Each structure stands twice: as structure tokens, then as C-alpha cells.
Model the fold of this input.
Amino acid sequence: MNNQVEKVPVFRFTKEGTTSLEVEVAREFPVTIILNNVELVTMLCSPKDMKYLAAGFLSSEGLIKSKDEIKKILVDERRGVVRVDTVEDKALAEDFFSKRLITTGCGRGASFYNTADAAIKKIESTMVISPGEIFKLADEFQHGSEVYLSTHGVHSAALCDRKKILTFFEDVGRHNAIDKVFGKCLLEGIPTSDHLLMTSGRISSDSVSKAVQRSIPIIVSIAVPTDLSIRMANDFGITLVGHAASGRMNVYTCNQRIARDIKA
Amino acid sequence: MNNQVEKVPVFRFTKEGTTSLEVEVAREFPVTIILNNVELVTMLCSPKDMKYLAAGFLSSEGLIKSKDEIKKILVDERRGVVRVDTVEDKALAEDFFSKRLITTGCGRGASFYNTADAAIKKIESTMVISPGEIFKLADEFQHGSEVYLSTHGVHSAALCDRKKILTFFEDVGRHNAIDKVFGKCLLEGIPTSDHLLMTSGRISSDSVSKAVQRSIPIIVSIAVPTDLSIRMANDFGITLVGHAASGRMNVYTCNQRIARDIKA
Done:
């Protein structure tokens, strides 16, 4: 299990006060599948069992039907590359690339995050919010989703200022809910810098990538972040808050935007 | 909220017995974004606020930076098509298509499900399982995830027979966990027909699509299905079980595979 989990420091805020501790978060790792020397796809996954992931993905896509079609599978765990060669050198890529389907869980980040080649511009914002204000927003957020309350089948996302929810959307896809928030902001001229993004979903690097595009200084999730989203939030100067519910939360990065006084 | 929710009949099994009732599930709908007459992407989403979804997606992808770049957005809600024209006729598609990133939530179904053009071959299986056996498997499944228990940041999936879990995987992506299960089965010759797929994640049409590829007759989720996944399971003759936890479950389709005797 070790390489799937990373220990990170957090500040935990509750109504009683603040503690500093270490928690475990899931690792998120980009893996590229190369089929017959053609780069097919890069997926964000847990860095384990990449051979099975590649074989299962190719099977789910209908690109291979049985084990006999596979000549070899080479896994480079460190670089995150799986090379699959088939017995017949299928010309699959074109057909595959001509169809793009983004499923309910998706959203596809603007690009695969790579610290080395990303031109990092830190998000400048002097926004400060108190834990009490976040608890209140999270509470309102969790009770705001009509579709969730009736179906338990959707995610939600919202843009907030310190005091209230400004836009709120639900969707079967957690990334779609965030895109709907930012789409409305874009089309209706609602500013996003110096505002907070709230999401019901787990935070992965793709969610942080969307926030970076809109200069969001603070992301609050009811769920938890991956290690890669934490590194990325650190790099871009975004305050990442997770596990926000029932009067408690963990702050993973850039805690200068969280007021020391609970109710400030 | 109406067009985001659908009422469906279910059989609810608890340790006390069976009731027949109607529940609400979230709707899932394919929406295609066409940018400057080039089909860019099809995404599975909740059928509402498609204009915002399209604008937000294009912004998240870095394809548009401001409202001023957009000449017009036309939404065909019934067909699920959003046409976006930009002021400058950007030649974006090629660059976009050359990069494929599948994010943590993803998995991309083999193809977009369309009853009209799908060559439907019903899954033939005489597998029968009792509610008691499913409760036991679900209980074991929920306690089997080390990484989840320490991080709350991953999904899990498993292949089971009536009595036990045969393969079990975790991943930050809910589709990746399923692909890992099926990849192992493919590479190691583990049969999947007459077996049960268990998942911690919500069931959308893409999850059903993966099960269809491997002739799985029964899918059990700890979470809930969308309306499209229910229709698809019906079409392919798959038994869909949701909300399976703590000695209760809902059966959405093909209940002939669920034994009437709780403990059978």
C-alpha cells in the first residue's frame, strides 16, 4: 500500500481550536499508455498495478478482446509509461482519436500537470476567510443540492465570497459541476479572483487546474485532496481546504488565507 | 430540477424483507460540444445549464480566455448539442486532439451509448445470488480497502463469485479501479461471465459499458446508478444493484437473478 499513500502535514480546525498533525492522502500519478508505438492516452491514477490498468483500459475500449492479441506489456513504473504491443500491428490510433467521449467522472484538465514545464504564476490574492465562515458556507452548500438530496447521484460546486454562495450547480460529473460554475462566471462577468470555489468532490490535479485558469485563491472540498493536487496548489499558491463538514476542516496549503480567529 | 431527476421502480431488499417502491435517480445525458463547426467532445452530464457547461469546459481547457472571444453559443437541449463560434476562427481542434488526458474521474466508455445504433446482445447468465450473500460481500468489500480506510481518497472495485471476492483493486479514479479488475482477469484468464462486479462508485453508462465488454451479469454498487445506466442495464440484461450497504439494497433491473429467499 505504501506507494499509494503519502503523509502530509495539515492544520485541523474545529470549533474548539487548531491542531497541527500529519494525515495520509491518496497518491495521484499520470500514466501514459503507448500502443504499438503510438501514444494513446495519459490517465491520472493510483501508481500501482499499471499493467492491469493498461490491459483493462484497452479491453474496455474494445481495442483488445483477448490476452492472445497481446505480444508484450512493458511497465516503466518510475516514468509512468506502459508500452503495449499487439500481435497484429493494428492501426488503431486514428479511429480512437476521432471519437472523444468524456464520461461522468471526467473533465479532462487543460493539460497534464508537470512542475518542470509548467510556467507557474502564483495566484496573488489577499483574501482571508475565517474557519467559522467556511463552516457556515459548507453547511449551506451541503443543504443546497435538491438533486443530491433526492437522488444521492450528483456532485455540486459553487463560487462563494466570504459570506455567501454566489453561483451553485449540480451535475452527475464532478468536473462538470465546476465547469458550469466557471462557465456562468465567464458569460455573466462574475469575477472569480478573490473568491472561493467549493466542491462536493475529491480534489485531484484536474480540479486544481480548472481553479488556476480562473485565478481562484481558495478551494474548499467536502471530500479530500490527492497528493498531486496538494503539490500543485502549493506551487500555484492556492489555499486547499478539505474534509470541510460538521464544523471541522483540514488546511493542506497556504494557510495564510485562513484567519486565526475562528469567528473573525 | 425536474429534467435532472427521473423516477424509477425498484425492489428494496432489507434483512426484514422486500418492498416494491419508486425512487428518484439522477439523469445522465450525452452533450456534444461543436467549436467552429468541429466536433470537439461528447460529455456525459446532467441535462441542464449546457451553455454554462460548454463555456466552462472551453475555458478550463484554455481554449477561450474571455467572453469577448465568443461570437455565439447555440444550445439544442433536445439533441444535446452546443455549438460555440468564436470571433476568430481558431484552428484549435488538431492541437486539442493530439493531447489526450484522462483525469481521475474518468475512464471513457468504449463508445457513447445509443440504443438506436447499438448492436445489443443480451448477456446470458443463469447466475442467481441471494440478498444475504450480497450483503455479506458488500460488507467484506467495504472493509477491504486499506487505502480508503487511511485516506478516504480512492474508489475500489472487485470481481466476486457468490461467496467471495476474487480480485480487488483501488484507484483514485473510479473507472480505473474497474479497469484494473478486468485487466487482471484478462491477463490471468480469470472468467468474468457468471460473476459479479462490485464498485464503490456511482454507476453511470460508462461503468455499464465496461461490464458489457466482459459479459458481467450482475453489477453491485455501494452508491447509486444514473437513469441512463439503468436503461442500458435493462437493454443488455444486466442486473443492477445499488445502495448496497448495511444490510439493504435496491435492485433496479433484471431481478430474476436475485433469489427470493434472503439467505438462500
Notes: Chain A is about 25% helix and 30% strand. Chain A touches chain B through 89 residues (CB under 8 Å). The helical segments of chain A are 50-60, 93-98, 131-142, 146-151, 174-188, 205-213, 227-236. The two ends of chain A are 41 Å apart (CA to CA).
